[in-house]
Design a protein that fits this description.
Protein name: Multidrug effflux MFS transporter
CATH superfamily: MFS general substrate transporter like domains
Structural class: mainly alpha
Radius of gyration: 21 Å
GO biological process, one term: xenobiotic detoxification by transmembrane export across the plasma membrane
Keywords: Cell membrane, Membrane, Transmembrane, Transmembrane helix, Transport
CATH topology: Growth Hormone, Chain: A
GO molecular function: xenobiotic transmembrane transporter activity
Number of strands: 0
Shape: globular
CATH class: Mainly Alpha
Pfam families: MFS_1
Helix content: over 70%
CATH architecture: Up-down Bundle
Length: 416
Amino acid sequence: MNNTGAKKYFHLIIILGLLTAIGPFSIDMYLPAFPDIAKSLHTSVAQVMLSLSSFFIGISVGQLVYGPLLERFGRKKPMYTGLFIYLLASVGCAMATSVHALIIFRLLQAFGGCAGMVAARAIVRDIFEVKQNAKIFSTLMLVVAVSPIIAPTVGGYITAAFGWRYVFAILIIINLLILAGVYFLLPESRKPDPYFSLKPGAILSNFTGILKHPQFYTYTLTGAIAYAGLYAYISGSPYVFMELFKVNEKQYGWIFALISIGVIGSSQVNNLALRKYSSEQIIKAATCCQSIIGIILAAITFLGLNGLFITILLIFLFLCGQGFIFPNASALSLAPFGNTAGSASALMGAIQMGIGAGASALVSVLQNGTPLPMAGVMACCAITAFAVFCGGRKLIIHRAKTRAMAEEDMEMISTI
């Protein structure tokens, strides 16, 4: 690749990474502000946590809407619409006077921001070869994973210095920068398809066809359920660290950043691992290890042996698994789809965020004044993801053998 090509590739990865990171950044940056928001809006931290759950729901539903739009109108026009909705909703969040208003505006903010997340995954499938996708997703995770390092730290300092409303002012500025990058630097990777139907029946049929593909549902569910462990941590960590372990907003930001280094490091080690091992082998090893760590975390929490440092260490190791699971599961999920990459990306993201929202809400519902709800949900997510992967792989192999036998029979018949 020449210097010009490398420069274009670098710009492309940065813009796609920012589009993918807008959701995580919107989540992580306001986490240290939970106690401040609760005090300002005269409510509880548990009620403020519902604004996080509504954000997950907005991302989940929104991706199903944007998938067909990305097929019909190309990749960029729906992105502009979504980012504009995100802009208006962010203004609403900054001006919210009640927790109920904040919950609604966070829902709308997520609905707008998810357009870029869906489009980024589809663009990767549009531009790069299938065999490169896992490496590209790992590279995107490097950009995405920077957000949980920077966002909570910045959010903690902004909240301490100026108040929680200024967190959303920063998100507005970030959104404007992303809009400029999309307009000036991001190419249109797929032309509009005027023949792609937006009728509910056709859209439902398209989604159903994708869902029936064994490779899609196996790796999508594996990645989504494993990733839900991350959302359980995100939802529960403000209460666990700031309320139970009594760290302040700035300290929480640094703890969150430290733990996030595990995701960054493992996603880059994944690139090296792909030179020697297949994506399937990496996912199997990562989900197995994550399950073991999750069980240990839940066990010591149940027994009351969980100090601050051991909790940080185990969560760090647990989240290292995400850097191996997410890129490979995403690549394998989208691999069978070319012309419908936008819809497949949307469906994958909707499932991921829907399960994540469920895990987040479950931590809130099970809240009992201990870290056990967070640790227990994280462990259950890891164990379930490992079980889904093992069962799905057996089904994929069985169907492949059945199809091969059928093709052999047909070939024998044709020669008679």
